[in-house]
Amino acid sequence: MDIFKFGGASVKDADGVKNLANIVRDYKKDELLIVISAMGKITNKLEELTEAYLSHKENTHEIFDEIKNFHFNIIENLFGEKSQKIYDDVANTFVEIDWLIEEVPDQNPDYIYDQIVSIGEVVSTKIVAAWLNEVGNKTLWADARNYIQTDNTYREGKVDWEKTQQIIARDLLPLMRENIIVTQGFIGNTSENYTTTLGREGSDYSAAIFASCLNANALTIWKDVPGVLNADPKWFDETEKIEQLSYHDAIELTYYGATVIHPKTIKPLQNKNIPLYVRSFLQPEGSGTAITKDSNPIPIPSFIFKVNQALISILPKDYSFIIEENLSFIFELFHKHKIKINTMLNSAISFSVSVDDDPIKLEKLIADLDDEFNIKYNKNLELVTIRYYNQKTIDRVTVNKDILLEVKSRHTCQIVMKNKPLNT
Ligand code: ASP
Ligand code: MG
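# aspartic acid complex -> structure
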């Protein structure tokens, strides 16, 4: 049994859906479960809709119409004359949003967000399942909310693994013998039967949950890149595909901000020793990247860039040393304000961290630190992390940069830097 995961980019239009069906047709093995995200950039649009509804904007219905038309268009392109049944099915799903936005928004905004945004995955899977059936695959649409059980932390549902595992083994496994299963990424269900989401880009994680609970042979994530690259092509012209990665390296890369797979994906797979393949839906014949336990790859240097970084230096006002007590106080405040530290360094009397620059959060943090510490604050910086670095790779990324902070461990180097001022 295999698990496939297709993200929004793979099903952004009718051709994408057809291409997905070709990949499924060429999968000649036994049981298959397919996890799919919302189509194209629909999750962003649904977020926009939620925001418009919550803040009583006039264009709420306009945004909603745009979302509906986007899907109806794809249905039309796929099914032509025969579109009535799937059209009705999708239209009925959208009615859930109609009902919701008729009311005054007086419930928990995160709850409302999940009820609206989850619809993107529900409709994308309905369309894909209908298309797979249309082209001759016996396919069953399954509601992920019947399987993935979470607590009621809306927008960040925490999975109840025990319950989820039980239900999947009991209810989903038998269905897989007869059908290809199509289900949603990103969404789950509370014990009171309300929809939750698992955090943006969470569909990879959903796929890993299904893979783990079904003891799948492998999970394949189909992307618009040939595999895991050693840098984001957005930043580098010459990227290299990594043929094999260990779970360990994959976790490190995603932790430092590589966006190719969601950071929570690896652990459930690693726990059950299920291989993860990252392959291209544009070139399905390519070998992609294999992420496994004991691959012993030649370390290729990988580069991860983060922009919009702030470097905060924290210095005790009385010039006392930075000791454990101060550090635990400081860490507690970062935790309280939900600010993730991207890199850090301490000296005798100062502690420096680089974080994503979120001015609202940082202002509150600094207000809390203000009594006991002097704070220095530098903005508009870049953070580059190099895994398996050497001097050549460091030189490559620091051309025309001023380095503000450099932290090295055996395999990883992190540099906080900014552009050198232009010579005048
Ligand atoms: N559709 C959701 C998002 O865009 C989940 C996912 O794509 O993984 O965040
Ligand atoms: Mg997406």
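# post-check
The chain has a mean pLDDT of 95.
The chain has two domains: 2-216, 302-419.
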